[in-house]
Structures are given as structure tokens and as C-alpha cells.
Amino acid sequence: MTSTHKRRFQQNGFTLVELLVAMSITSIIVLVLFAIVGQTSTNYRLSQRKITTLADARAFLQFIESDFASRISRTKFHWKNDTPQSSRFALTLVRNSDESFSNPDQGDLSTVVYYKEFTADDTLRSSFKVFRKKIDGLATQQLLESGNAAAFPVTDSSLDEAVLFNCLEFSLKPYRREINGSLSPWLESDPIAPDAVELTIAIIDEFSSQKLLRAEQWQALATSVDPRAREAVQQFTRIIPLNPWCARRKKMALPCRWPSLPFLACWFSWSVCSRCLP
User: What is the pTM of this model?
Assistant: First the structure.
């Protein structure tokens, strides 16, 4: 092989520096692609968790609103605040037809109790849950006969039904409606039941709850104001009217842009009379 052919063969190949530069650029591109794919998958998982949490919260709010709608007015409203993030209350309501007790002859009245408690899970973990206790008609009648002297019903989380899981906050604030339509805080010393309640719940998804092992960690997250720490927390607040008159007045309080019916009737009568009279 002549020297000319050797120089041509050497010029057609890649040098070591060129190979290293090409490999470095390829590695950077691959790393960027992996980062984009990883961030996309992380955002997708977070969005799916938020959607699941939102669905659970909506189902629970609809469930508890149905209990408030079935509440019998002018009955004692049992309410306690254990902590700013934990409330318990009891409602006397008309028993639904699909609910059954051991003794069907006890009447159509029942009492439901909602409360939050830190209990163990099936997976040997512990978390805060909202429980719902159902009291039969006989015990409900005894509560009604006791009147304002009735003690708060006794609860047992090992027997009651858990209706909301991974709950950081379950607080309820009762209000009474003033003459001018505004809401003011309701006190247990008030002679009548509250007109409306403000229910606030804060929950997290199942994956985020696995990082919280002790009750102190749950309480620290519930009271934290750090946006990064509360990124996985979903909070919902709902004002629920207890008095049907209060609900109707709330709807009637909406502003109306059209003239009232009596004004239209008077105007129509005046216009007819003005045309008919000479």
C-alpha cells in the first residue's frame, strides 16, 4: 500500500476526539429526554392522585349533606371541638328505608355521630379517619327525652364505620342567622339549634399518607403553613344550611335585576286606566 492510499484511509475515519465529543452530546440528549419523561410521569401520577382525592372528597360531602338534609329540625345539635382540626357532632334524623337495625319496631328515628380518630390500618399503619356511628331508635328516643341535659353519645372506632380516610382536618363551625341575614357564631348556650354549619375537610392521597407514621406527624402537617409541605393536601369547605327557611332566604337574598311583580302589576293597571279614561 502506497503512502497516498494510507493518507486517504486515515482521512476517511473519525479521530478519538470526535468520538468523545459525539458521545458526550448523545449522552446529554439522552439525559435531557430521561428528565423530561420522568417529570411528565411524575406530574401524571400527581394529577391522578389529586383526581382520586377529589372524587373521595366529593362522595363524602354528598353523603354527609344527605344526612344534614334528613335532620329533624328543632332537635338538640350535639357538637364538640376536640382541637381546631377535629370536631365531633351528632344529628337526629329520619332513618332511611335502606338502613336496617336489629329491631325494626324502634321507629323511623335514628342518630348519626361523626368524629375523627387516629386508628390502625389493615396494613399495620395508623392514620386519621372520619367515622360514622349509627344509633337506633330506642337510644335516639332517650336522647330526645333528655333534652339539653343529654350527654354526647359514646363512640367506639372498632365498631363504627370509617367513611373518610387519610383525613388531616375535620372541623365544623355552626352559625346562626341574624335578622339582617348575616351569619354569626353559634354557641351551645343558644336556646335554638344553628341555622347553618361550615364544614371543612383536608385529606391527602394514599401514597403521601405512607410517609406519616405517627400522630404527631399528621398533626404537624395539618397545622403547617409551608406550601411545599402541603402540596399533597386537598382542602374543601362547604356551608350547609340546617334550617329550610334559612336555605330559602339564602336563595331569595340573591340580587334581582328585574322589577318586582307588584311594581309591574301597578304599572300595567295605571297604563290601562290612563288609556280607558277620557
Answer: 0.72
